[in-house]
Amino acid sequence: MAWLVLLLVVLMLGAAVLVLLLDNLVAAVAAASVVSLLLSVLFALLAAPDVALTEAAVGAGLSGAVLALGLRRLGLAGIKAEDDHA
Questions:
Q1: Which of 35, 36, 70, 77 would be 60's cystine partner, CB 3.0–4.6 Å?
Q2: Where are the bilayer-spanning segments (predicted)?
């Protein structure tokens, strides 16, 4: 059990460092969501399923969606809308 917890913590730290180092902002948002998902797995292993579900829903799902939509709204997502030339 201790090895699994240690592995999860190392993976979370790696993903957190990626958030800081990535130039692509969409990839940074995805890495932040990975941190939240791994944390929810850690909470589930520590016998806190209510906290794990909340972290998965809010931390990975809602926060990732809000950040991605914010990037799109600011024009920083790198996704270009196709114009209709009719």
A1: 36
A2: 41-71
